[in-house]
Design goal:
By secondary structure, the protein is α/β, with parallel strands linked by helices. It has one domain: TIM Barrel (Alpha-Beta Barrel), CATH 3.20.20. Helices cover 45% and strands 16% of the residues. Strands 1-2-5-6-7-8-10-11 form an eight-stranded parallel barrel. Strands 3-4 form a two-stranded antiparallel sheet. Strand 3 and strand 4 form a beta hairpin. Helix 8 packs parallel to helix 10, helix 12 packs parallel to helix 13 and helix 13 packs parallel to helix 15. It is globular, with a radius of gyration of 25 Å.
């Protein structure tokens, strides 16, 4: 009988203990789980952590605060592209780039210049001028000297050329450079030299998409790098955009990333985002399981990057901050969630995945 009494007493104590742990005093509301406090990405990484931004978004306090807290490098989403700056042969509009560079300086951030030359960004007035090769190059040289010179010592690196190769590894035949020059690679070599001469301290990059995944494009890039070296032209790094997905094969990514690093150049993951809505479905739901898949992919990519030689790790840049402003909402699907922060700037599981991938 005494044993039965003690058994009942112990069960009563355990029951009360559980209730007191789960219930807020004075009501029946369950306590919320404690908030997860994560270190800023920039504080854990041994290389720069960047994000692409616009002037308009930086004028939103929540956006600006999230950016300043978690990142230490800035890329312009579009405001440093030629079409935005070069309004005529002799006139330039620097309001956007100046704002971005000043914002970075005020917040102890570095700036990566994106991009000097991109086939989609030559201004209409320039294309319509139908310059011969000599005048084409002289004008572009003046542009590079003007822009790079303006930000000498303020922009630490430039994408000198962006997306010159087609998916099969050939040069883009739809590019004005291809149509103007018998030797387009020679033109790009000289453009890298113009940038180096203007700011000898700036790191100079070639940037493209799918070099890690596409062996044909990667092979063409490596041949170009070898030609630069053989002929004495400067190139410091390679940027791979890394617009990728949760369904992309991780082993393929790792093989390609390692192969890029075999060049010995700096490696920049330059425009990272990770799609989740494979079928572009209007009824797609970003469930907990889908969020975890994305977090796992962010972690895997960061871990692969961390495995590169330390001296070659330049930066990882995500192409935006919050899902609500991602370019993929219009290009891919309005039901897409590719970045590290939700629309209310709360951290996603993707953020935790990225963070846990850092050494």
């Amino acid at each position: 009988m005494l044993n039965l009494y003690f058994a009942v007493l112990i069960l009563s104590i355990i029951s009360c203990s559980k209730k007191n742990h789960a219930v807020t005093p004075g009501n029946n509301t369950q306590n919320p789980p404690p908030a997860v406090v994560s270190a800023p990405l920039k504080d854990k990484a041994l290389f720069e952590i960047g994000a692409a931004v616009t002037v308009a978004h930086l004028k939103e306090p929540d956006f600006a605060n999230t950016f300043k807290t978690n990142f230490n490098q800035l890329s312009a989403e579009y405001e440093m592209k030629m079409k935005q700056i070069w309004t005529s042969a002799t006139t330039y509009s620097f309001d956007g780039p100046d704002y971005l560079v000043n914002f970075a300086a005020q917040n102890s951030m570095k700036v990566h210049g994106h991009t000097l030359l991109w086939y989609k960004s030559f201004p209409d007035w320039f294309i319509n001028a139908a310059y011969d090769s000599l005048n084409f190059e002289n004008n572009v040289k003046a542009y590079i000297q003007t822009v790079v010179g303006r930000y000498k010592g303020k922009i630490r690196s430039w994408d000198v050329a962006n997306e010159i190769f087609a998916d099969d590894g050939s040069l883009r035949i739809d590019a004005s450079v291809y149509k103007t020059f018998k030797d387009p690679i020679g033109f790009y070599e000289r453009c890298f030299q113009y940038a180096r001469d203007t700011d000898p301290d700036a790191k100079l990059f070639y940037n493209d998409y799918d070099q890690v995944l596409n062996s044909a494009k990667r092979s063409s890039l490596k041949k170009m790098v070898e030609r630069f070296r053989k002929e004495g032209y400067p190139i410091d790094g390679i940027g791979d955009q890394f617009h990728t997905t949760v369904w992309t094969d991780k082993a393929t990514i790792n093989i390609g990333l390692t192969d890029l690093a075999s060049t010995g150049l700096l490696i920049h993951i330059s425009e990272l985002d990770i799609r989740v809505n494979q079928n572009k479905s209007d009824s797609y739901v970003f469930t907990d399981a889908e969020q975890q898949k994305q977090a796992n992919m962010y972690k895997a990519i960061v871990e692969m990057y961390e495995a590169l030689p330390q001296a070659q790790k330049f930066a990882i840049t995500v192409w935006g901050i919050t899902d609500k402003y991602s370019w993929l909402l219009s290009w891919w699907s309005p039901k897409e969630y590719p970045l590290l922060f939700n629309g209310d700037y709360s951290k996603k599981k993707a953020y935790e995945g990225f963070l846990s991938g850092l050494k």
